Automatic annotation (TrEMBL), chain A:
Signal peptide: none annotated. InterPro entries: CT_C_D (IPR003833), Cyclophilin-like_dom_sf (IPR029000), PxpB (IPR010016). SMART domains: AHS1. Keywords: ATP-binding, Hydrolase, Nucleotide-binding. Its EC number is 3.5.2.9. GO terms for molecular function: 5-oxoprolinase (ATP-hydrolyzing) activity; ATP binding. It comes from Biomaibacter acetigenes. This is 5-oxoprolinase subunit PxpB. Residues 5-205 form the Carboxyltransferase domain.
UniProtKB/TrEMBL annotation, chain B:
This is Biotin-dependent carboxyltransferase. Keywords: ATP-binding, Hydrolase, Nucleotide-binding, Transferase. The lineage of its organism: Bacteria, Bacillati, Bacillota, Clostridia, Thermosediminibacterales. The keyword Endoplasmic reticulum does not apply. SMART domains: AHS2. Residues 25-304 form the Carboxyltransferase domain. One of its GO terms (molecular function) is hydrolase activity. It comes from the Bacteria. InterPro entries: CT_A_B, Cyclophilin-like_dom_sf, PxpC. NCBIfam families: urea_amlyse_rel.
Length: 241, 334
């Protein structure tokens, strides 16, 4: 992490506040704090914010706010003050592993000379930090997956991966929010809709929160899927401490 | 009010507005009209608010059957509209009557035309915008391009606006080779001075692998000093990424919100409309400018828009019958 963040121009309507050149929780926490600060300040002229692993992109409307005014606001930010009232959530995502839900579970297990159960246990153990969202609507970049189950991508990507699929690519893990092509090794699937445009909060995840995967049975998967369809399913969340 | 039945959808026709803002932190692309300038003028011509949903027509126009009397306008690429086979002007509004057939010529210049309708098209409103984002299946008509048989609806216009035309001197000219102004950075330090010079002094061709998400370019290789990959950070439309094959990619409106390649430069906002009108095979050169020039260009563009507002000329359409044959005549003020 840099001693002092760098401010970089990104065209004529955006700046990047770069905190470092690394994937680390410390760096990402600073960025999320600054992001929350700016959301709270409701700065007139700021159009959008994109927090990532190592930077915050700020889109602004130059007719409403000048570069100088933006810099002044940024200099008012005191990260220590923010952390006190920042209460990230843990979002529990139920996942059915293996079988038709995770066609590559067996491969991942064999690749590491583990049993299917061991892979599931290793995958469900950590609390995964949501570093950022990007790539496609609602796709979360999670940190903390164990190297013990890190597995290379498929040589030939699948043309269609159903929404809700949980995959592994190298040392990363993630969930596909939409049906899309992809090369990740699929180990399970969640019946929860990460993205639903009809919902009050269409996108379930936000950067700075945490995800915990909870293994469920085949029967539970279909039960929850029914509840999701009816709109009666509530994802379990609790404060991160 | 149903206004059109889609008899032929064209290659890629979608409903767009000025875009989806404030959800980029959750991975939602901006989308919206590729050529905002032409889009805004299309709405001005029919008396709509500038951010009213209109059709973005790419390369090959649709054939639409008119279901209700209305007024429309066509701007952007020179894709001459025809009503029952009779020519209408581009950058102008004109009336349509129930039963008419609206079709389009191939573009003689430019790539994207905009069709606005008095009152605006109705579409799915998702995450603050009507814009169709096909990869995310949201906005417009169930998040997809037009299909044969679709019925397009519009709000009732409060009153039918006058028909009017943009004076010739205020209509942009689209070339097959354009100079696009850029601001160098944010990852210019990944490239040597020579690599940046090469980027600025070369001509690149837009390849077939180009769409609303991004334009892949073909030209001399632009190499980073070290790695081309960066730790993923935010993207804006207009950003120019250089992957490890050295062939730049210009991100466009449907671009993902984050990316992992070094960005050598970002297109200035005022030149995004120019870029939007390039098609595969067309060429682009880049010119480095500073922020002052970028803002001046933006102001100039807004000034042209104001000029258009002020200098729209009325154009009137009449039905004449001569020896039993009917003719449609338009008269515009010079």
């Amino acid at each position: 992490m840099y001693e002092k963040p760098r401010i970089l121009m990104c065209g004529d309507k955006a700046i990047v506040v770069e905190y470092g050149n690394e994937i680390s929780e410390g760096c990402n926490k600073q960025i999320i704090s600054l992001y929350r600060f700016l959301v709270r300040e409701k700065v007139n002229g700021i159009v959008s914010l994109i927090p990532t692993y190592r930077s915050l992109l700020i889109k602004f409307e130059p007719t409403q706010i000048s570069f100088q005014q933006l810099e002044d606001i940024l200099s008012r930010f005191n990260p220590k003050e923010i952390e006190k009232d920042f209460n990230p959530l843990v979002i529990e995502i139920p996942v059915a592993y293996g079988e038709e839900f995770g066609p590559d579970l067996q491969y991942v297990a064999e690749f590491h000379s583990l049993t299917n159960e061991e892979v599931i246990q290793i995958h469900t153990e950590p609390l995964y930090r949501i570093y950022m969202l990007g790539f496609i609507i609602g796709f979360a970049y999670l940190g903390n997956m164990s190297e013990k189950i890190a597995t290379p991508r498929l040589d030939k990507p699948r043309t269609i991966i159903p929404a809700g699929s949980v995959g592994i690519a190298g040392a990363q893990t993630g969930i596909y929010p939409l049906d899309s092509p992809g090369g990740w090794r699929l180990i399970g699937k969640t019946p929860v809709r990460l993205y639903d445009p009809q919902r009050e909060r269409p996108i379930l995840f936000q950067a700075g929160d945490y995800v915990r995967f909870k293994p469920i049975s085949r029967e539970e998967f279909f039960e929850i899927e029914e509840e999701v369809k009816k709109g009666s399913f509530q994802v379990r969340t609790y404060p991160y401490s | 009010m149903n206004v059109f039945r889609v008899n032929q959808p064209g290659i890629f026709t979608t409903i767009q507005d000025l875009g989806r803002f404030g959800y980029e932190n959750q991975g939602v692309p901006v989308a919206g009209a590729m050529d905002e300038f032409a889009f805004r003028v299309a709405n001005i011509l029919v008396g709509n608010n500038e951010n009213t949903p209109a059709l973005e027509i790419t390369l090959l126009g649709p054939t639409l059957e008119v279901l209700e009397d209305t007024i429309v306008a066509v701007t952007g690429a020179k894709m001459t509209p025809f009503v029952n086979g009779m020519k209408r002007d581009c950058w102008s509004s004109f009336p349509l009557r129930k039963g008419d057939i609206l079709s389009f010529d191939y573009p003689s210049s430019g790539a994207r035309a905009y069709l606005s309708v008095a009152g605006g098209f109705l579409g799915e409103f998702a995450l603050g915008s009507y814009s169709t984002y096909t990869r995310g299946k949201i906005g417009g008509i169930r998040g997809r391009r037009l299909e044969k048989g679709d019925i397009l609806s519009c709000r009732f216009p409060l009153q039918f606006p006058k028909t009017q035309i943009v004076p010739n001197e205020l209509i942009p000219v689209y070339l097959s080779e354009e100079e696009v102004r850029v601001i160098i950075g944010p990852q210019h330090d990944y490239f040597s001075h020579e690599a940046i010079e090469k980027f600025l002094n070369s001509i690149f061709t837009i390849t077939k692998d180009s769409d609303r998400m991004g334009y892949k370019l073909d030209g001399p290789e632009i190499r980073a000093t070290g790695k081309h990959d960066i730790i993923t950070d935010g993207l804006v439309p207009g950003a120019i990424q250089v992957p490890s094959n050295g062939q730049p990619i210009i991100m466009m409106k449907d671009a993902q919100t984050t990316g992992g390649y070094a960005k050598i430069a970002v297109t200035i906002t005022a030149d995004l409309s120019k870029l939007a009108q390039l098609k595969p095979g067309d060429r682009v050169r880049f010119k480095s400018v500073d922020i002052k020039e970028a803002y001046k260009a933006l102001k100039d563009q807004e000034r042209v828009l104001k000029e258009i507002y002020l200098h729209l000329r009325p154009i009137k359409f009449y039905n004449l019958k001569i020896n039993g044959r009917s003719f449609e005549v338009s008269i515009s003020q010079i």
